[in-house]
Specification:
about 220 residues; Rossmann fold; 7 helices; 5 strands; globular
Length: about 220
């Protein structure tokens, strides 16, 4: 076999693999922390469970794998992701991590590096990525809060990933935010979950459009 024949066969194999991936029903992997793991909520009432209902309503035949763990950080998610990619072969990955990094005082550069690595890992595995942003209260200092929020935007822009700017938009910044939080004033209650889903749904639905290749 000469070099030209090898190139033609390799190209054909890649095209066939891409076609099989395009034909496969979507598998959405959600890699998150307590915000996505139904912490303190009745089972089936969290935004990820509501996502499954929304997909059924929209007649989108996708499978949702919720790999969220309460208390998880970006280092934890980065360590877990390779096995999850291998086990579930997701077509789409939703990364909702970073809030606990701030709570633990981890350096912003570390959070940025870990988010970048996770987005790249998922993309290299053939998945389209939705990065879910978080914000911290102003008592952390306005400069830190600004830089923390910008971290998600910077990573999404650099890696050409989709972005939810703030998972808790309409929840934490509403006129009466305490109404939408549990007693710890950290975790959203069941009333907040449909709002959180709406924040995720629009960019995720765009990623699920048929015929659009994964980044």
């Amino acid at each position: 076999m000469d070099r030209r024949d090898f190139i033609v066969l390799a190209a054909a194999a890649l095209c066939a693999a891409a076609s099989r991936a395009a034909d496969r029903a979507p598998v959405i992997l959600v890699l998150g922390d307590s915000m996505s793991a139904e912490y303190g909520l009745p089972r089936g009432s969290g935004w990820v469970a509501l996502l499954e209902e929304r997909l059924a309503e929209e007649k989108i035949g996708a499978t949702v794998v919720n790999a969220s763990v309460s208390g998880d950080t970006t280092p934890g998610g980065r360590a877990r992701l390779p096995q999850l990619l291998a086990a579930h072969r997701p077509t789409h990955v939703v990364i909702e991590l970073g809030g606990n990094d701030a709570l633990r005082g981890l350096p912003l550069k570390n959070t940025e590096d870990n988010l970048t690595a996770m987005v790249r890992q998922a993309q290299q595995a053939g998945a389209r990525v939705l990065l879910v942003g978080m914000q911290v209260p102003p008592n952390y200092g306005t400069d830190y809060a600004r830089r923390f929020a910008a971290t998600f935007e910077d990573v999404a822009r650099a890696q050409k990933a989709a972005l939810v700017p703030f998972l808790l938009a309409g929840v934490a910044d509403g006129p009466d935010p305490l109404r939408l939080f549990q007693g710890d004033r950290i975790h959203p209650n069941a009333r907040a979950q449909p709002i959180m889903l709406d924040n995720v749904w629009r960019p995720l639905k765009a990623l699920l459009r048929p015929g659009v290749a994964a980044k």
